[in-house]
Recover the amino acids of this structure.
């Protein structure tokens, strides 16, 4: 199929009279064709958006593809409140799409990030025409990867997203005042130009001053967060769902958790590659994870969108899953291969403790005596973000050499002996340590790294926990590093970093009771207790040798 037509700015009237605009991509011929819908806040005509959605390819695959600007964005009428209107507007759009000329009446949805959440919201209201969804690289609970992570603010994500979406907001707000519009746009551009410097440094962070000053869309606003929570919508979803995640995506664990919850109720499939939120390629930062890991060459045979369109087409035309393999497909970094699995998490993975030692050791057996390691955390001089599962203009996401982090005096480093055999680790990584601070609150950041024989150390996963504390009193701290799949090769070493900041990804803990509101900061003295079997350790899900699943 090579011919198609496109209709631009097709009006779609919502139940309250607001008109949204959509572009409709049609295959040649009368059909009937299944319809797929994507609803975006990022401009349906923007080239990068079209690259991620490929509506032309969708039409060539036999779909009527609809790409719509959500309420209050670009060509659509109304006021934009992040996530707030996506449930009802999504239902109205799906029902309209089902009646398009040439439509078969069966509608699916596709798209990533915000567009993934919009799918959950619409599906939760069970529009009769909606038969399948494919939410990609999207979140689940707003306090676990969107607005917050482990109690800390996702500063880099929330502030930079507000800046990026703010330009259209200002264009609409000051459309009738050219002078004011110019001043506002220049001010916002100056803030954007302040990345990665002054724009991230502005305090306080409990109420973001930059977002408030420009009155920008705010992912962390309570009304938006309440609307965006996936579990309340997912409880009512009855259609099949395809979940695509990336190990270096800011929403890696939430996408996996969405799959796990969906699979308990309806047919679901999970695909996880070595990707980040912006680039679904095998080259992540400083590390090339192998050609087969590219989003355009999955198992050398298909692409993310090719897989998505095949899956949707099967459900929308036959009401059945495509004839493919097991429900879970994951890319094992280090091994450079895809594996098909019957489940997630893997029941055969063995939770294995690696214990932190006083001399910077990391072993599966501990020291008999206890000891305390200390460092000073100064929020005016935080440990920098160097790669990771992040989404912000700078620094970039992915796996990077960690020497600038590990050379700091406020980062504790624990390293295993050189591995005598490969260690296959697939599943959720957690850290438990006994720690104390001399203030009323602080943060604990733990990072897992793969150390090459030449000494270079590359980040795999990390996490943060913000704690309230009794000064000087040791307490058990749990840090969730989320899930990954990594083969630590023979001759490599496994490394764990422990510190108290990762800025500007997460906001700095001021170590004061009211510092998030006032900006008051103090230097904190931190203590980590190590030694023995249960003071401080990371738990890695190790897959036994010779039991690596279906490649």
């Amino acid at each position: 199929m090579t011919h198609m037509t496109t209709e631009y700015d097709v009006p779609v009237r919502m139940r309250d009279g607001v008109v949204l605009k959509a572009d409709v991509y049609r295959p040649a011929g009368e059909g009937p064709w299944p319809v797929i819908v994507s609803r975006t806040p990022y401009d349906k005509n923007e080239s990068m958006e079209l690259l991620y959605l490929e509506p032309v390819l969708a039409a060539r695959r036999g779909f009527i593809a609809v790409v719509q600007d959500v309420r209050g964005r670009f060509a659509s009428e109304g006021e934009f409140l992040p996530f707030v209107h996506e449930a009802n507007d999504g239902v109205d759009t799906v029902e309209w799409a089902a009646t398009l000329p040439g439509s078969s009446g069966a509608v699916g949805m596709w798209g990533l990030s915000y567009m993934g959440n919009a799918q959950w919201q619409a599906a939760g209201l069970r529009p009769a025409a909606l038969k399948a969804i494919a939410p990609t690289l999207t979140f689940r609970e707003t306090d676990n990867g969107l607005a917050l992570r482990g109690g800390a603010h996702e500063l880099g994500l929330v502030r930079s997203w507000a800046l990026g979406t703010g330009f259209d907001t200002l264009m609409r707000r000051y459309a009738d005042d050219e002078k004011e519009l110019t001043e506002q746009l220049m001010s916002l551009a100056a803030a954007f130009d302040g990345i990665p410097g002054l724009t991230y440094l502005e305090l306080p962070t409990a109420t973001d001053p930059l977002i408030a000053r420009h009155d920008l869309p705010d992912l962390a606003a309570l009304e938006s967060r309440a609307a965006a929570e996936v579990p309340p919508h997912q409880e009512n979803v009855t259609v099949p769902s395809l979940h695509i995640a990336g190990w270096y995506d800011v929403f890696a664990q939430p996408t996996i958790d969405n799959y796990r919850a969906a699979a308990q109720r309806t047919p679901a499939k999970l695909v996880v590659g070595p990707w980040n939120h912006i680039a679904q390629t095998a080259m992540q930062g400083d590390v090339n994870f192998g050609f087969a890991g590219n989003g355009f060459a999955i198992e050398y045979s298909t692409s993310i969108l090719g897989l998505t369109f095949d899956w949707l087409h099967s459900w929308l035309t036959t009401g059945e899953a495509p004839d493919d393999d097991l429900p879970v497909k994951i890319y094992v970094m280090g091994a450079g291969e895809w594996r098909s699995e019957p489940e997630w998490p893997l029941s055969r993975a063995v939770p294995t403790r690696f214990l932190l030692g006083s001399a910077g050791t990391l072993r599966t057996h501990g020291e008999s005596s206890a000891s305390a390691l200390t460092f000073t955390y100064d929020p005016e001089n935080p440990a920098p973000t160097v790669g990771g599962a992040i989404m912000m203009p700078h620094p970039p996401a992915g796996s990077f050499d960690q020497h600038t982090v590990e050379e700091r005096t406020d980062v504790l480093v624990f390293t295993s002996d050189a591995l005598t055999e490969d260690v296959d680790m697939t599943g959720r990584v957690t850290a438990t340590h006994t720690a104390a601070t001399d203030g009323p609150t602080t943060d604990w950041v733990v990072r897992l790294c793969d150390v090459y024989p030449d000494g270079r150390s590359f980040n795999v996963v990390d996490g943060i926990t913000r704690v309230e504390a009794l000064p000087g009193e040791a307490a058990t701290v749990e840090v969730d590093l989320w899930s990954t799949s990594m083969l630590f090769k023979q001759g490599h070493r496994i490394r764990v970093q422990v510190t108290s900041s990762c800025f500007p990804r997460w906001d700095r803990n001021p170590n004061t009771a009211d510092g998030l509101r006032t900006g008051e900061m103090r230097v904190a003295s931190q203590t980590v207790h190590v030694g023995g079997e249960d003071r401080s350790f990371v738990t890695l899900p190790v897959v036994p040798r010779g039991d690596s699943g279906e490649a």
In short: The mean pLDDT is 95. The CA atoms of residues 165 and 217 lie 7 Å apart. The longest strand covers residues 423-437. The first helix runs from residue 47 to 53.
